[in-house]
UniProtKB/TrEMBL annotation:
GO terms for molecular function: oxidoreductase activity, acting on the CH-OH group of donors, NAD or NADP as acceptor. Keywords: Oxidoreductase. This is NAD(P)-dependent dehydrogenase (Short-subunit alcohol dehydrogenase family). SUPFAM superfamilies: NAD(P)-binding Rossmann-fold domains.
């Protein structure tokens, strides 16, 4: 890996020689865009061959079509992260088709239905939330890192796990702090650190991108669905805790942050929790 970071004219955040898997590269129905799709598009714009993995293959195919329309490269893989063999197959298929894995972004989350009055839910829904938010992350981190350690060079791969300040604070205006979501993200934070330590000698890096009030499909949908908010109420809830005058962040800002963590410029960063939350976690 060239480290000529001071060279005039050097292309910043160049991913042109990298294969990047985005788990959650489709998105759930609804207006707007999700973080996973935005990261796919942004990584492709920076030259990566992008693999959009998603349970909803139609949504992943749509992401790939958007990439192709801009002249980018990519393909889709259907996979359910609650199934360990599906997680393994994502990376087996990527290596078979592309020869290697250089980056992986875990951008999958769910908020199962719950009873608002008692903050309770069925065991089935709870287990599903943990499986998606945490165990899927563990399996994808493991299989991705095992692929990356076979790459050559001093920095062999980068893993980016999308977390939330729900793992730090439980306030409606900040996050959807429902148990399997918040607990799952707490586990994801720790999985990232374990991955960073376990695979450091192989040159694999792992970092957490901890999101706050981002204007995304899931953030808007779940705020309205779980708490009965109207769209204007969602905006007000977030405005109460984000004091920066520009308001909520966008999925494109999430995407740029993810691209930095995938790129060689972040080669000396691993095991970190990077907050992209407009300072919301600082509000008491």
């Amino acid at each position: 890996m060239p480290t000529d970071f001071d060279r005039p004219g050097r292309t910043a955040l160049d991913l042109s020689d990298k294969v990047v898997v985005v788990v959650g590269g489709g998105q759930q129905p609804g207006p707007g865009m999700g973080n996973g799709r935005a990261i796919c598009i942004m990584a492709a714009r920076h030259g990566a061959q992008v693999v959009a993995a998603d349970r909803n293959i139609a949504a992943a195919d749509e992401t790939v079509a958007m990439i192709a329309a801009e002249g980018g490269r990519g393909y889709a893989i259907e996979a359910d992260v609650t199934e360990v063999e599906d997680c393994r197959r994502i990376f087996d298929e990527t290596v078979a088709r592309s020869g290697r894995v250089d980056g992986m972004v875990y951008s999958v989350a769910t908020n199962p239905p719950f009873d608002r009055e008692t903050n309770t839910m069925t065991v089935k829904d709870f287990d599903y939330g943990i499986n998606v938010n945490m165990l899927g992350c563990y399996h994808c981190n493991l299989f991705a890192a095992q692929c990356m350690e076979r790459n050559g060079g001093d920095t062999t791969g980068s893993i980016v796990n999308l977390s939330s300040i729900a793992s730090l604070k439980n306030e409606v205006g900040l996050n959807i702090g429902i148990m399997p979501y918040a607990l799952g993200k707490c586990g994801l934070n720790y999985i990232t650190e374990l991955t960073a330590v376990q695979f450091a000698e192989a040159g694999v890096r792992a970092n957490t991108l901890m999101l706050g009030p981002i204007d995304s499909v899931i953030g808007n949908h779940d705020s309205q669905e779980l708490f009965g908010f109207e769209p204007v109420e969602v905006e007000q809830a977030y405005a109460d805790v984000v004091r920066l005058k520009m308001g909520r962040g966008t999925v494109w800002e999430s995407a740029y942050a993810a691209v930095y963590l995938l790129a060689d410029e972040s080669r000396f960063m691993t095991g970190q929790q990077i907050r992209l939350d407009g300072g919301a976690a600082l509000v008491r």
